[in-house]
Amino acid sequence: MRISSSASRSLLLAGAFIGVLSYGAAAQTASPPAAAPAAAPALPPGSPLIGRPDNEAAQKLAPVAAPPIAAAPDKLPMDKLKVPAGFHLEVYAAGMPNARSLALGDKGTVFVGSRTVDKVYAIINKDGKREVKVIASGLYRPNGVAFKNGTLYIAELSKISKIDNIEDHLDNPPKPTVIYDNLPKDEAHGWKFIAIGPDNKLYIPVGQPGNNVLHDKDHGQIRRINLDGSGAEVVALGVRNSVGFDWNPQTKQLYFTDNGRDWLSEDVPNDELNRVTKVGEDFGAPYCYQGNIPDPEFGWGHSCSEFTPPVALMGPHAASLGMRFYTGKMFPASFKDQIIVARHGSWNRTHKFGGDVVVVHLNKDGTVKNIEPIVTGFLQDNKYVGRPVDVMQLKDGSMLISDDWNGAVYRLSYGKSKVATQ
Predict the structure, then answer these.
(1) Cβ(378)–Cβ(384) below 8 Å
(2) Which pLDDT does position 127 carry in this prediction?
(3) Which of 92, 123, 228, 415 could be stapled to 411 by a disulfide with Cβ–Cβ 3.0 to 4.6 Å?
C-alpha cells in the first residue's frame, strides 16, 4: 500500500508527540540527583591543618592538645623518664599549667612563661621550701621570659613588657609596662621565646604566619631591640619558627633552633639548628628547608645554595624548642660549652619523634659533631606522658627542664643527688 506524503508527515508528528509524553513521564518518575557533599568548613588563617594531604593517614594527624590542668606532683611521669648513669632527675616544682619558657633571677627566682594560659609564674625558695606564685595574669600568650639587672621581660603575642625590681615585689608585683609593640598579631607561630644577648640587647623571633607561606618583611625573622624598646634591627631572615636560642660562650655567635614546615612528608624536612655568623643572614624559609630541600611551592627560581645551611639537623618534625649552652661545672667535662636542647616532639607523624632532651656536641670550629639523648621517656607507646619545652642552667650547674604537658619543671643533676636551693 502506498502512503501519501501528508500521511507520512502525520505519522512522524504523532510519534514525536508520543516520545515527548514518554520522556516527560519518565522524567517525573526518575530519582532526583544526589545532593553534592557539603563543603568542609574553611580553616582559619594560619591553621596548622592548612595543606594537610587528603588521605586517610594524614587526616588522622592533628596537633596534640595537652591536658587542661597541671598534673598533681604524685601523677608526674618520673618512673618513665630515663637519664644516663650518674645523672638524676627530680621534680623541681609543679602546679603551673602550660609551663613553658624559663628565666633565672639574680636572687634565685625561677620565672616561667606560658602559651595557652594568661599567666607568668615565679618559683621561689621560702623557709627551705619551694613555692609557686603567679606574678602576672591577664596576659595574652606570655610565652617568653628574660631577666637582666633586676628586670623581668615578658613576651606576649604582639608586645614586650617589663617589670622592674621584680624580685623585691614578688608578693605584690606591679603590672607589666609595655616597651615594644611593633609586632604582628598573627596567631600562627605568634608565641615568642626571648633572651638577652652578650650585646645587652633583647632578641625576639617573629615566625611565619602559617605553616608554609610567602611572608612579608615583618615575618620569618629574628629581631633585636635595646632594653628600652628602641633600635629595632633584623638579625636573621628565612626563619620559619624559632622557639629557642642562645649564644656560644666562646665565639658569642647566636645559635637557634628552627622548626621545619609541615605536610611535605612524614620524614622531611628536619628541624634545624642554625648559627648566625653575620647580621642579616638568610636561612632559607620558605624557599628551602634543612639546607637541601627546595620547597615544592615556593622554591621555584631559587637554589638552596643561596641560603645559609643549618649546622645540624634535629630530626623530622621533632619540634626542637628551648636550648642553652652548658657553662656549669656539675656535669661531666664533655658537656662544657655544648648545647642542651628540648625537643617537644612531633604531632604530624604517624610514628611520633622527639619528646626528649638531647645534648649537641660541637667541634672546635662551632660545627656539630654529634647529638645524643640525655633525658628520654616523654614519649611512651607513641603517646606523650610529658613534653619538654625549655631548659635552663641553675647557678649550681644543674639544669631545669619545663614540661607544658604536665605543668611542671624538673631538675637534672649529676653526681651525688642534692636538692637545689636556687
Answers:
(1) yes
(2) 84
(3) 92
Average confidence (pLDDT) per 10 residues, the chain, 422 residues: 42 39 42 60 91 95 95 97 98 98 98 98 92 98 98 98 98 97 96 98 98 95 98 98 98 98 97 98 98 98 98 98 98 98 97 98 96 98 98 98 98 80 50
Q: Are 313 and 270 in contact (CB under 8 A)?
A: yes
Q: In sequence order, what are the beta bridge partners of 408? A: 403
* DSSP-assigned letters across all residues of 65-123: PPPSSPPPGGGS-TTT-B--TTEEEEEEE---TTEEEEEE-TTSPEEEEESSSS-EEEE
**Nearest CA-CA partner of 386 in 145, 48, 86, 64:** 64
C-alpha cell at 345: 616532639
pLDDT recorded at residue 38: 62
- Residues 190, 207 contacting (CB under 8 angstroms): yes
Q: Give the global pTM.
A: 0.90
- DSSP for 197-210 reads -TTS-EEEEE--SS
The count of residues in the chain is 422
Count the neighbouring beta carbons within 10 Å of the beta carbon of residue 346. 23
Cell of 13: 508528528
The secondary structure of residue 5, as a DSSP letter, is H
Task: Classify residue 166 by its DSSP letter.
Answer: G
Q: Which helix (H) or strand (E) holds 145?
A: strand 144-148
Q: What is the helix, strand, coil percentage profile of the chain, to 5?
A: 10, 35, 55
Q: 141: burial class by Cβ within 10 Å (0-12, 13-18, 19+)?
A: buried
For residue 299, the SS3 value is coil
What's the pLDDT tens digit per position in 179-189?
A: 999 999 999 99
CA 96 and chain centroid, separation = 19
| CB contact set of 224 (below 8 Å; sequence gap of 6+) | 197, 199, 201, 202, 203, 204, 232, 233, 235
Q: What is the pLDDT of residue 41?
A: 77
Return the bridge partners of 110, or none.
104, 123
